[in-house]
Specification:
single chain; Pdz3 Domain; 2-enoyl-CoA Hydratase, Chain A, domain 1; Muramoyl-pentapeptide Carboxypeptidase, domain 1; 3 domains; six-stranded antiparallel sheet; six-stranded mixed sheet; 12 helices; about 20% strand; globular; hydrolase; PDZ_sf; transmembrane helix; endopeptidase activity
């Protein structure tokens, strides 16, 4: 039997190519199978979790011994998920809370004018807005609120606190405050209708200096700033000071536009970084204001300067080497985005932000090039007018009294924590000036008058800013 044998030959290059293609196809099939399995596993895992939520909901809905509010139950479940993030900047806003949120970014609302936040189930003042009833009442960044109108707020969240603090113009609210290691004290504040122009300007002719104060980043802030800068560049002043003290932040888009006014179009304002490490550059889209390059730029920060304030300061440090003075800023290096569901809103942290030179300032803040402390502000406390402070009294309150008298021009050489003859003499001089019986003791009418004078002095005199101006003009 003859067997026909045929020899098949293949080009070696073609053979190698065939083997390579086969290996690639096999790899793709293997990877596709793995990802399909992983996807199905994740879907099943998620489905099981949602089944658990649905089962609990139906169990409560069907068998709870009282009628339930289904919407409230769902909102509570969503609140619980957001709270599970343990992120003070993420929250789920109901229709009422969304209305308050919209008010805060438009600059129109009725209340005390303070940004508050929740940290570890405790409520704190983040920043009192400049010129607001909160600032006039003496509230400071990092003040802890433990009570509202005599009731403890232990266990309540920040939205509950906001509802109680806000109210109609002319009504009052009493906050119980803990400041550092001091004993709790009450502050009564009269609510007001607050429209905050977010930018104000002061020109100091004899110092060749302009001061622009930015109180928050709300809708239209960059336009307000642009209008002021158009005036500033037309004078012959050498120095421009940008005051961001107690500015809690706000809209990132406004900060980016404001950065453009100083550094120009198509410059990196910040870098957003997601949890997988992917980065996105946020760039300016606004032209630089002509004439600013001829002025020194100084930025003033304190521990109440947060979020968008820090984005702005960090960008100007990196791009034009702007000088930062004051104190370290708050240190909020994360960004929130929003997703609206009907009349409700989910606000959550979706990325961290870096300066153009990729610095991350979270929990560290922006460090000043020159530390300029706010003198008496650091020692500010609320004195109890029912308490008597006199010679031989001791403590933190005495140090505040002495710092206050010194800042008002009375003779106190070295403020300490002891009420001595020097304190008594200075206090008598104060009492005589304000037509109060000169007993040399601090209580009653003397205390009330002293606190009012001190707050007016801080608002109008601003010794810290005087030191900033001195630094800027002599550098």
């Amino acid at each position: 039997m003859n067997i026909l044998k045929r020899k098949i030959t293949m080009n070696p290059i073609l053979f190698t190519f065939f083997i390579l293609i086969s290996m690639i196809v096999a790899s793709i099939v293997t990877m596709a199978t793995f990802y399909l399995y992983q996807s199905l596993f994740n879907q099943n895992h998620s489905a099981n979790n949602f089944d658990k939520i649905e089962t609990v909901y139906e169990q409560i809905n069907n068998e709870y011994y009282k009628d339930i509010d289904e919407d409230k139950l769902i909102d509570s479940a969503i609140d619980g998920m957001v709270e599970g993030l343990e992120d003070p900047y993420s929250e789920y806003l109901t229709e009422e809370e969304l209305s308050q949120f919209d008010e805060s970014i438009s600059g129109n609302f009725e209340g005390i004018g303070a940004e508050i936040e929740q940290r570890d189930n405790e409520i704190f003042i983040s920043s009192p807005i400049k010129g607001s009833p909160a600032e006039k009442g003496g509230l400071q960044p990092k003040d802890q609120i433990i009570g509202i109108d005599g009731d403890s707020i232990e266990g309540q969240d920040v939205n509950d606190a906001v509802k109680k603090i806000r109210g109609e113009k002319g009504t009052t609210v009493t906050l119980t405050i803990v400041r550092g290691n001091q004993q709790p004290f009450d502050v009564e504040i009269t609510r007001d209708k607050i429209h905050m122009d977010s930018v104000s300007h002061q020109s100091i002719e004899n110092e060749s200096t302009d001061i622009i104060t930015i109180s928050r980043f709300q809708q239209g802030t960059h336009k307000e700033l642009s209008n002021v800068l158009d005036k500033v560049v037309n004078n012959d002043h050498n120095h421009l000071i940008l005051d961001f003290r107690n500015n809690p932040g706000g809209l990132l888009d406004e900060a980016v536009n404001m950065i453009g006014l100083f550094v120009g179009d198509n410059k990196v304002a910040a870098i957003l970084e997601t949890r997988d490490g992917k980065q996105q550059e946020v760039k300016t889209t606004i032209d630089q204001v002509d004439g600013l390059e001829d002025k020194t730029i100084t930025i003033v920060l304190n521990e109440g300067s947060a979020s968008a304030s820090e984005v702005f300061a960090g960008a100007l440090q990196d791009h034009i080497n702007a000088t930062v003075v004051g104190e370290s800023s708050y240190g909020k290096g994360v960004v929130q985005t929003t997703k609206q569901f009907g009349n409700e809103l989910l606000k959550y942290t979706n990325s961290k932000w870096l300066t153009p030179n990729e610095r991350w300032i979270h929990d560290k803040g922006i460090k000043p090039d020159k530390v300029i402390k706010p003198s008496i502000y650091k020692h500010l406390t609320m004195l109890d007018s029912d308490k008597v402070y006199k010679e031989n009294s001791k403590g933190e309150d005495i140090q505040f009294i002495e710092f206050g008298l010194q800042s008002l021009g009375y003779s106190i050489k070295s403020p300490n924590k002891e009420f001595d003859s020097e304190t008594e003499k200075a206090l008598k001089a104060f009492q005589q000036e304000y037509e109060i019986k000169a007993t040399g003791e601090m209580h009653g009418k003397t205390t009330d008058t002293f606190m009012k004078v001190i707050f007016d002095h801080l608002r109008n005199d601003d010794p810290q800013m005087k030191n900033v101006i001195q630094f800027v003009t002599q550098t």
